[in-house]
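FAQ
Q: What does a multi-component entry look like?
A: The components come first, one per line:
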Amino acid sequence: MTRRAVVTGLGVLAPTGIGTKAYWAAALDGRSGLGPMTRMDPSGYPIKVIGEVRDFVPGDLLPSRVVVETALMTQYGLVCADEALRDGELDPGEQPEYEMSVVTANATGGAEFGQREMQNLYAKGPSQVGAYMAIAWFYAANSGQISIRHGMRGPSGVFITDQAGGLDCVGQARRVIRNGSTFALSGGTDSSFSPSGLVGQIPPGLVSLSTDPDRAYLPFDVAADGYTPGEGGAILLVEEAASAQARGVRPYGEIAGYATAFDPHPRTGRGPNLRRAIEGALADARTAPEDVDVVFADGYGVPRLDRLECEALAGVFGPRGVAVTVPKTATGRMYAAGPTVDLVAALLSLRHGVIPSTLNVTAVSPDCPVDLVLGDPREARVRTALVIARGYNGFNAAVVVKAVA
Amino acid sequence: MDELTLDGLREIMRHCVGTGESVNLDGDIRDTAFTDLGYDSLAVLEVVTQVQGRLGVSIPDEALNDIETPGALVEYVASQKAGA
Amino acid sequence: MSERRVVVTGIGVAAPGGLGVPAFWDTLMAGRSMTRRITHFDPSDFRCQVAAEIDFDPAANGLSPQEARRLDRAGQLALVASREALADSGLGTDALDPSRVGVSLGNAIGCTELMEREYVVLSDGGRKWLVDPEYAVPQLYDVMVPSSMAAEVAWTIGAEGPVALVSTGCTSGIDALGHGFELVREGSADVVLAAGTDAPVSPVTVACFDTLRAQSTANDDPEHACRPFDRDRKGLILGEGSAVMVFEELEHARRRGARVYCEVRGYASRANGYHMTGLKPDGREMAEAIRVALDQARLNPEDIDYINAHGSGTKQNDRHETAAFKASLGRHAYETPVSSIKSMIGHSLGAIGAIEVAACCLAIDNDAIPPTANLSTPDPECDLDYVPVTAREQRTDAVLSVGSGFGGFQSAIVVAAPERTYA
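Then the predicted structure of the entire assembly, as tokens:
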């Protein structure tokens, strides 16, 4: 019989709050984490509004030894991992080392760390590149540091699929649980807010250039004109269901379905495969569309991409056939972190019977026939939630989480 | 920086790994092994990179292999400076 | 339902010594060391001035002017190798169901080469922290997110199933193959391009390894700079390259009468949970990965005919994996030839794991094993048969390949001759 994977611990770090409690309270209160850029002088850049994590003091939360050798994305991952383990009441030291895995995602690597050392190289010379550069900026740093911190020596992984990575890593975590691991820490973290990291986000032309934090990121809205970049992370403690039961830990929900699909090249003229990813995840979860209580949408905030997402949703659920929300309007798109943060919100919706709303959106576009949760959070019996993510270049992923009976 | 004193090195070492719980650089660290001060191979390399940059000296592998304490590093840099 | 089995039906390689599988295999069999003084940039200010480079002309190798402009060197190498693998497999992409085709591309350091070049322009040679957005090239976001390379590979075969970049540092290549193997085995895809690519011979990466003092400094004798298992080893030498393999479900391959190189039998990965760069001398997590991979392959240690080692050329690594082979294979470790092709083509980070498995597939196909070049004075603490200098012809049915990398990742994969597995 297939081993089932449930989530027993959550860790979040977002522009709206550090820690699950702070994040969830802000999501329900409708507080935004978007604002004018403070991480660097914004005057030379067309992007004015971003979602920054504020008041993050890594030295208060992590050993100084670890702080100096890690990029922000890794610090976010380590802090979220700590919280997820606490929340799931798991002491890794008491578990078989090879039955604990770490599977993470990020999109851009340690952008600021990398830029700093690159500047050392070009301004001062090769002998001035710091020793930590080799282990800090690269994509595998998060899984490596988390596994070292907790002695988790099972199969580990790092998945890079732009923003879809935040779900793909959780799909992989479920796979390693099925294949024999008992625990997996899994999720996406990202921070690309260095000058070069920010500039890299300009050319695709998808980022909103609005100067108004409340009007910058408005997916499905008539005024949608791009997304706001954010930073942050979320790590889930994924656990084999019987283990959670034996430990007496109440799961937030089960990772019941997962699927991924890649889009054809635009020159083929064929449409995207988001719908197939959604249908694949539902089939994998043996769930009919009518049993889905809420969709945490991708919500790119780019009219063309919003329309495509609505077409996929309408194809599966019918026009306005399911409640849809995009709580990331309060945080910005946090790259690989975003979809995992959405998963956290989905799992909390299962637990608390309330769906956070889509902050700032007021006028849903007629092109977007979705039942978008606006204004106040919507109280509802939530037993099944679908989370969708898309990554630049055609990555699509979908995860279905279900309440555990 | 023209010469590397033990206090100068102490400051560089703090800069390289911070002042966390596992690192105590107060007191006489001259003859305490880097490893016992909480500096692993990577941290020592970071310290050496900083020392090389600030003092304008080069510390080759063969020399580095024999430098196990802050005192030895200070002495090596002094000998290089004297020879230069 | 019987278990789905995964076979290799196509191979493409771009490695130092030449593009294409014939040139690659010829280099290995001749034991030719391809390490040389760096030509990609002026290395005079660097501690290590040696690397294994590819002489690569994008246009001559079928890349369009737009591909050559758009793609980082790692992406370019991956495209060339993908096209070779596809042609070699005989798969007609029109006949494939795109939703059943996937990509698993290993890569450790992204599009560093192009990212670095663009950084130099944006920052005006490192002068500006607040870099200049006016100089942002259209592909800058693609350069920042290495998933763009997985997308490029997907477009070569028209993959619309699971597509991902796997980035576990120096085990990325082997782990990407392992992931591709799992995708086919579990039924998420029938065909996966399983691959690795990296192009680290650029100033920032050479500087990184310089600072770690991990690279050989045998600048006066570049050809013999990488000496795994040799007493006089001085460290690793960077390389560059890509290898792409077509992983196909056995029945899918049989139905179309495909040529089968070998079967992928087992894969496992473990983390040492110890140190980002340091290895414990006992090699226990690598040994565990080997044991689990063998178990999954349903093979005994005695079945292994050849081990393709990580063999990076550092003392720490050589002793670590020698211990791992002994711990996992027992007495058979002493009877099994072990070699490191990094001695010839360098360490291409996220690519090398895939390139090494390509070498293993060819070893099975040719009943011959590549040597460890430059091994003239064995390290007395490394007491296995490391196939010094000269290739060997020998029956090769089952092969183990291992990798070890920053972050503490340890991986093992087992491939075996088809006739042995389902004749």
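Q: Is there any commentary attached?
A: Sometimes. For this entry: Chain A has a mean pLDDT of 97.
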